Amino acid sequence: MPWRLTTDEKEQRDKAAPDVPASPDRPPPPTITLLWPDTSRPVRNPVTIEVQFAPGPGGSIDINSFNASYGRLGINITRRLLDHAVVGPSGLSAAEVKLPSGHHRVTLSIADTSGRTASKTIHFSVAGSDGRAAAASRSGLVVCRPGGALCHSRPPVAWL
User: Fold this and answer.
1) Which region among 40-44, 81-85, 102-106, 114-118 has the lowest average model confidence (pLDDT)?
2) Which domain holds residue 154?
């Protein structure tokens, strides 16, 4: 017997409803791209982080919408990150950041002036003083690469 998606009654109501054209596709949301570091292998301290934001078509980045959260519980680390990074419409950068060793998960989100939002979750590992980390990361995070467009000089800082 085939699996039914709805009851007979609801299916009849659906068939009797007027055929309304689908709403037009919305333009794509902004994008968040981790430029540096390479999170495919454990990161070593101090690290430079560089993230790039790009608005969706017809919009510009609303920098006041930027948010950063940590871990599975989504602990808000936006203020802590912004205290140690340079952030603007084109991205975020932080130089000489000291991160605790271990595995980390950071989710970044941003919106554009058209109200479209994007988020990116970055999984990464930071090598301990012995150079080892438990596992490789699966995604990317951002800050500043030496010589990068968003780079700035600061003494090493604790970020997480």
Assistant:
1) 81-85
2) 27-158
